[in-house]
């Protein structure tokens, strides 16, 4: 069952609101609230041809979804689109332009539209049963005619700042490399609200996830630097959400709403953008080694598909296992099982046809 929660950021964030970090926070919440044995049983319930008890999406601006990562129109298709929509269009918007100006405007806009990385849920509902990049551009064109100019506005700004590395023994700035390092801080726009999708396939986990999101996470904070006020948020369930709106007619593809990486992912024909995650342990393991000795907070790098990845199949991935061998402690695992929604691609975009 798919649920949706509303997130209201109340401070800047150091750590992006990504699916695998939500999962890591849930694991520590289970460890603290239910004990080590409960957490071990929870992690062992993933894979083995069973539906995952809980999966998280990444967080998106309210009312938006990641745009499917699919090949854009080729040059011939783009020229045809521009001739039909801009040159041969007698709308008031273009009456003062020459044909050359119309073509230039069309090429400029199509180039910018191809960079837009999200779609509104309203757009998605109109596209999901016959999806194509041409139809996506047509929806952008209709919006352009109504609004004249629009941009793909992100819900946040990123601030890059330099910080001093402090030697905790001496209390002075570390001498190596000048003692400076750079950090990115995410500032969400005032009044912004985000959508988080949660797939829950175990009835026992429904109240646990509700408490985790609405009580535990707001009380403890999200990601790095929680102790100095970063990652503060408020989360409420979206009682108006109807998951059936994401069902599709004769789907032949899945859109990932999460960071995705699981054993065998390379066997699926897919389109994606890659992100390397340099994960860090949380909870007690952020300052003490899980295996004894010096702290080892960093996981091995993990290569993951970003949200928006498209799998050319109609298979639910909830039965996939967690990633193992990502730390010297074999107990530690990483969740790259995506929340995904079905849709139908109306054009042939297989690898073979693109290569040809």
Overall description:
The chain has helices at 19-34, 36-44, 75-87, 99-113, 121-127, 133-147, 205-220, 351-355, and strands spanning 2-9, 54-56, 60-61, 64-66, 118-120, 156-164, 166-167, 172-173, 180-188, 194-200, 233-237, 253-256, 270-271, 274-277, 302-305, 310-311, 340-343. It is an alpha+beta fold and 356 residues long. It has two domains: 2-66 and 192-355, no CATH class; 156-185, no CATH class. A hairpin with a 4-residue loop joins β7 (166-167) and β8 (172-173). The longest helix is centred in the first third of the chain and has 16 residues, at 19-34. The model has no long low-confidence stretch (mean pLDDT 87).
Question: How would you concisely characterize the structure shown here?
Answer:
The protein has 356 residues and is an alpha+beta fold. It contains eight helices and 17 strands.
Q: How much of the residues is beta strand, in percent?
A: 15-25%
How many structural domains? 2
Weakly predicted, low-confidence segments: none
Cα-atom radius of gyration: 23 Å
Structural class: alpha+beta
Largest sheet: 5 strands, antiparallel
H/E topology pattern: EHHEEEHHEHHEEEEEHEEEEEEEH
> What's the number of extended β-strand segments?
17
In round numbers, the mean pLDDT is 87
- Give the termini distance in whole angstroms: 40 Å
Based on Cα principal axes, name the global outline.
Answer: globular
Q: Helix count?
A: 8
* Helix share, percent: 25-40%
The oligomeric status of these chains comes to single chain
